[in-house]
Every structure is written in C-alpha cells, then in structure tokens.
Design goal:
Distance between the termini: 35 Å
Number of domains: 1
Radius of gyration: 17 Å
Largest sheet: 4 strands, antiparallel
Shape: globular
Structural class: alpha+beta
CATH superfamily: NADH Oxidase
Strand content: 15-25%
CATH architecture: 3-Layer(aba) Sandwich
Number of strands: 4
Number of helices: 6
Helix content: 25-40%
CATH class: Alpha Beta
Strand order of the largest sheet: 1-2-4-3
Length: 173
C-alpha cells in the first residue's frame, strides 16, 4: 500500500478484539514514532506502552470514561519533555506539542499499515494520566492511542473538499 492509500485507510477504531499485538509489529510501530522529525532534532519524547489491565482501566477514567481504550491490547502514551524541545517554534511557543503529535501520527499510520486499529485520544486529564503512569515533570502528555486488532470497521467520517481548505499565495488568494 502506498502512503496515500494508507492515509485514506486510517480510521478511528473504538472497538477491539481480545487479541495480543505481536511484538515485532509493536516494535515497528514504536520505531516509526522514534524516527519522527522534531524541532532541532531534540527527540525529547518517551512512549509509554501500557498492557496491564488495571492500568488500562485507570486510564479509562483519566481519559474521561472512554471505555473502549481498555479493550485494546495496549495503550501508547506520548510524552514530551518541554524543557528539552526547540524553544522558539513560530517565535512564540515551544515545539513540544508539534514534536509529540508528529511522532504519534507516525505510529498511528504505521499501525494502519500493520493491520491494527488506533484512535487518537486527546480527551484526557493530564494530571490523572501523569498520576496513573507516573510521568515525571517536566514531561507533558501529548496524546494516547489504544492499539489492537479492530473488532469493527472504522467509519468514514467525511472530509472537506480540498478547495475548502487550501488557499493559494496569500489568505485572500
């Protein structure tokens, strides 16, 4: 499958089979995150792979009651050390969010290539995730994704037409 087909195939999965993800697939997915670009090549991330059921259940509560995440074989949490990232991203913020987001998206696309389901989880309480996973300061939690075999086919959510999201040369065109 080429990259364009892969991007089109990716879906948010909210139901998982009770099947273990093979270690070689998991390692390839994590490596895809490791290879992501980051501001000034800081690579200030850590990826937490959670498989223990009691921790996954605790993450359900930390993720605003999204029960389906605990169905997956594992949950990957992306954390970034904000003190070690590029400090002048756009000349007004640090690159911690962009760096972590790119790494997570690369893992999500790699999981799709491996025939696995994911769902970008941005609805969470950072302090609760930090407590459950014992994430130290100054790391920030960027997002999480369940990772496992899909029990359902993901829904096509529709996308805006290209002409609705692209302008040429300047905002006014």
């Amino acid at each position: 499958m080429n990259i364009y087909e892969l991007i089109e195939k990716r879906r948010s999965i909210r139901s998982y089979l009770p099947k273990k993800v093979e270690e070689e697939k998991l390692k390839r997915i994590l490596n895809a995150g490791r290879l992501a670009p980051s501001g000034k090549n800081a690579q200030a991330w850590k990826f937490i792979v959670t498989r223990r059921s009691e921790l996954k259940e605790a993450l359900v509560e930390a993720c605003k009651g999204q029960k389906f995440i605990a169905e997956a074989d594992c949950i990957i949490t992306v954390c970034v050390d904000e003190s070690k990232v590029y400090q002048q991203h756009g000349a007004y913020m640090t690159s911690f969010m962009a760096d972590g987001t790119i790494a997570l998206q690369q893992m999500i696309l790699a999981a799709t290539e491996e025939g696995l389901g994911t769902c970008w989880i941005g609805a969470f309480f950072e302090d609760k995730v930090r407590e459950v996973l014992k994430v130290p300061e100054p790391y920030r939690i960027i997002g999480l994704t369940p990772l496992g075999y899909s029990a359902v086919e993901g829904k096509e959510r529709g996308r805006k037409e290209l002409k609705e999201v692209v302008v040429w040369e300047t905002w006014e065109g």
